[in-house]
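Protocol step 4 of 5: obtain the predicted structure for the target chain.
Materials: sequence only (see below). No template structures provided, no constraints applied. The aim of this step is simply to have a reference model before the mutagenesis design in step 5. Sequence pasted as it appears in the construct record:
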Amino acid sequence: MPSRNSSKKTSRRLSPFDQDFLDLVEGRRAGHLGKYEYANGLMRLWSHFLSNNKEYYVLHEEEDLIRRCAQVSANLIAAKNIKTITLVSYGPGTKFKAKEGELIKAFKKAGIEIAKVIYVDKYKSALNKSSKEGRKLLPNAIHEKIQGDIFDPSSRKRAGIVGAEVGTCFGLTPMNAEGFGDVMPPVSAIEKNLKGLRAQMSKGAHFIATYDHNTDKASIEKSYAGRSEHAKGLLSKYLRWSDEDLRDVDFVVKYNPRSYIAAHGFHFKKNMRFELGDGRSRHVKDGITLWFQNSVKLPKYITQMVHEHSGFEYLLPQKAEIAENGRMGYHHMTAV
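Step 4 output (structure tokens):
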């Protein structure tokens, strides 16, 4: 039985994760634990998943698409006679060199100087890794780290931009959704997040983003198959469940093409009793699936619509560049 090894059974205040997990177990909320997935050392497990799943379609396809489109973006910016820029990386994660690195090479080729790089990410480990890679790529630039939510308008200071502003957000998920039904989350909620991103940018700033436009149920569910260790890390890290406890918990993914929601869940193969931080026991029944994280995967036409409603304008007549298999999209816009 998972246990906190506490000698006292007196009532105590639950930690934020304990309360959120209890809400999930007792059915009050679902799909709301995504904010914990990369914090407190779990970014290392995510990096492990990426490095050991080379054909994970998002990463493999995204890097190919950025490599193919980077020079187009650099040429569009150079055509405006822009010689110096500040590169603002929103949510760089652990793949700055593989993604932004391709843009940096293209900018150099186009004669554009990157005078400053700003890294904005919620997770300290991601900021440290990405800025370390950025400093190696651009040793003469100014480097600034800002820890915060990329959709929060206050995450980035308005001052400090050198030259023109170019923002990037590779692997952008416009929002995580609670619940799991047949109805797509309201477009207004998605636009609210993107407007928060737009509010951090100066007028005329370039914004380059990639999205996963895949809406094929079989391939989405298959692509996450190797992510079990990272997902179960939530339970071992925050609840201190042992490998033996987790043996009867399966990680599962279910995609609903009607709502565009990919839900990640823990499926329990037997009844389990466990303790939270208040010293009280709870239980999960055999056969229950707890949907702990739900990400929205929008098709291309909806993504373009929400961008245009959120203060962005596309530069290219064909709008988004799409990968060869039609799933990953590369979007180059300006803030209007």
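Step 4 remarks: Residues 4-10 have pLDDT under 50 and may be disordered. The CA atoms of residues 25 and 264 lie 15 Å apart.
Proceed to step 5.
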